[in-house]
C-alpha cells in the first residue's frame, strides 16, 4: 500500500514453534487450518523445538538457513510463522529469505479481510490492518536514501515516510470516526429493543464450533456457514418466537480464537458489544473437539476482555453426531436450572431442547394468571392481545372478560401502569386463580 515489500503468493512454508510456555504455545493443527482458511497452499512445514527467542530472527541463524533451504526447494512464495513477529524480525527474515514473511496476527487479519461482507465489517478489518501496518511502515522506504548534507545527497526517504505516516493517521482517524457512528446506531437500536423489552440472546464460541449452523436452524435463516475458521464476521440479528416465552432476538457473532489479536478485539468492539449487552449468552462448544476445554478457556478470556464474563451463560455442546452414544439432552444444576444442552445443529437434533432451555433461563419471572377486564378497560384487553399474552378468553355473565394470561412480569407491570393502575392492586383485585 504505502511501501514496497516482497510480493506474496499462495505457496506457503509454515513455521511452528514448540518449546514455548503453555500460555504462549499455539496449536499446530489450528495453524494449518488457519492457513487453509486463508487460501494458501502448504508446500512445507518446519517445527522448531527447544525454542529460544532470538531478537533478530525470533529463531536461531541455523533455523533461518533451514527455512531458506525449504523455501528454495519447494519454490515457496510466502513464509508464515505460528507466532507474533516484531517489525524488525519480519524485515530481517524477508531480507534473508527473499520472500514475504507473515506472522500469526497478519494471517488472521488476511482471513478477516477475505470474510468481511458488510461496509461495517470492511471498515473494522481495515482499521485493524492499518493499526498493524503502522508499526511496520518504517521498513518500506529503506531503499530510499536518508536526507544527508551536501549537494546531491539530500534523499527523499524521511520526507516520504512522514507523508505516508500522516496519510495513515488520517485514514485511521477517518475510519474510527465512522465506526463511532456505527456504534451510536447500534446503541440506538439496542435501546429500542430494551424499550420493547425483547430479550437478546447472543451466540458466542470458538471459531468453527457451529454457531452459524445453529443460528440458521433456530431462525430458519441462510447466514453463511462453512467448515472453516472465521466463516462469520458480520453480526446478524434475527427475531424468533418461543412458545414458552414470546419474541427473542438471536445474535450471531464472530468466533473467538486462542490469542485473538488485541487489535482485532479493539476494531470489532462495536460488533462484540452485541455479546456484552445480551440478556443471555449461548456458548456454543464443539463437543467432538479434543481441545474443547482449552477453547472454552480462551472464549472465557475474550468474554472477560469485552466485559461479558458475568452475563448468564447457557452452554450448547454441538456436533454430538460425531460422538458415540450421546443423545440430545439438557443438563441442570442443583436447583434444576438448565446449564448445558447437548445437540447436533447439522442434523437438527435437540434444537427443541435449546429453545426450551432458553425459555427457562429467560422466563424465570414469567407470570401466568387469570384476570378480569372491566367494561372501561377495553384498551388494556387489546394491549394484552397485542403482546401475545392471552391464552384464553371467557365472557362472564356480568359482561366482563376473563383472560388467561402468560407473559413476563415486567411486561405485565408496564401495561398495567400505562392504565394508571398499580400491578399489585390490579392482581389482588382481579386474580381468580
Automatic annotation (TrEMBL):
<dbReference type="Pfam" id="PF19275">
    <property type="entry name" value="HflX_C"/>
</dbReference>
<dbReference type="GO" id="GO:0003924">
    <property type="term" value="F:GTPase activity"/>
</dbReference>
<feature type="coiled-coil region">
    <location>
        <begin position="165"/>
        <end position="192"/>
    </location>
</feature>
<dbReference type="GO" id="GO:0005525">
    <property type="term" value="F:GTP binding"/>
</dbReference>
<protein>
    <recommendedName>
        <fullName>GTPase HflX</fullName>
    </recommendedName>
</protein>
<dbReference type="InterPro" id="IPR030394">
    <property type="entry name" value="G_HFLX_dom"/>
</dbReference>
<dbReference type="GO" id="GO:0043022">
    <property type="term" value="F:ribosome binding"/>
</dbReference>
<feature type="binding site">
    <location>
        <begin position="252"/>
        <end position="255"/>
    </location>
    <ligand>
        <name>GTP</name>
    </ligand>
</feature>
<feature type="binding site">
    <location>
        <begin position="205"/>
        <end position="212"/>
    </location>
    <ligand>
        <name>GTP</name>
    </ligand>
</feature>
<dbReference type="InterPro" id="IPR035647">
    <property type="entry name" value="EFG_III/V"/>
</dbReference>
<keyword id="KW-0547">Nucleotide-binding</keyword>
<dbReference type="Pfam" id="PF16360">
    <property type="entry name" value="GTP-bdg_M"/>
</dbReference>
<comment type="subunit">
    <text>Monomer. Associates with the 50S ribosomal subunit.</text>
</comment>
<dbReference type="GO" id="GO:0097216">
    <property type="term" value="F:guanosine tetraphosphate binding"/>
</dbReference>
<feature type="domain" description="Hflx-type G">
    <location>
        <begin position="199"/>
        <end position="366"/>
    </location>
</feature>
<dbReference type="InterPro" id="IPR006073">
    <property type="entry name" value="GTP-bd"/>
</dbReference>
<feature type="binding site">
    <location>
        <begin position="344"/>
        <end position="346"/>
    </location>
    <ligand>
        <name>GTP</name>
    </ligand>
</feature>
<keyword id="KW-0460">Magnesium</keyword>
<dbReference type="InterPro" id="IPR027417">
    <property type="entry name" value="P-loop_NTPase"/>
</dbReference>
<feature type="binding site">
    <location>
        <begin position="230"/>
        <end position="234"/>
    </location>
    <ligand>
        <name>GTP</name>
    </ligand>
</feature>
<comment type="similarity">
    <text>Belongs to the TRAFAC class OBG-HflX-like GTPase superfamily. HflX GTPase family.</text>
</comment>
<dbReference type="InterPro" id="IPR042108">
    <property type="entry name" value="GTPase_HflX_N_sf"/>
</dbReference>
<keyword id="KW-0479">Metal-binding</keyword>
<feature type="binding site">
    <location>
        <position position="212"/>
    </location>
    <ligand>
        <name>Mg(2+)</name>
    </ligand>
</feature>
<feature type="binding site">
    <location>
        <begin position="318"/>
        <end position="321"/>
    </location>
    <ligand>
        <name>GTP</name>
    </ligand>
</feature>
<dbReference type="GO" id="GO:0005737">
    <property type="term" value="C:cytoplasm"/>
</dbReference>
<dbReference type="InterPro" id="IPR032305">
    <property type="entry name" value="GTP-bd_M"/>
</dbReference>
<dbReference type="InterPro" id="IPR025121">
    <property type="entry name" value="GTPase_HflX_N"/>
</dbReference>
<dbReference type="Pfam" id="PF13167">
    <property type="entry name" value="GTP-bdg_N"/>
</dbReference>
<dbReference type="Pfam" id="PF01926">
    <property type="entry name" value="MMR_HSR1"/>
</dbReference>
<dbReference type="InterPro" id="IPR016496">
    <property type="entry name" value="GTPase_HflX"/>
</dbReference>
<keyword id="KW-0175">Coiled coil</keyword>
<dbReference type="InterPro" id="IPR045498">
    <property type="entry name" value="HflX_C"/>
</dbReference>
<keyword id="KW-0342">GTP-binding</keyword>
<keyword id="KW-0963">Cytoplasm</keyword>
<dbReference type="GO" id="GO:0046872">
    <property type="term" value="F:metal ion binding"/>
</dbReference>
<feature type="binding site">
    <location>
        <position position="232"/>
    </location>
    <ligand>
        <name>Mg(2+)</name>
    </ligand>
</feature>
<comment type="function">
    <text>GTPase that associates with the 50S ribosomal subunit and may have a role during protein synthesis or ribosome biogenesis.</text>
</comment>
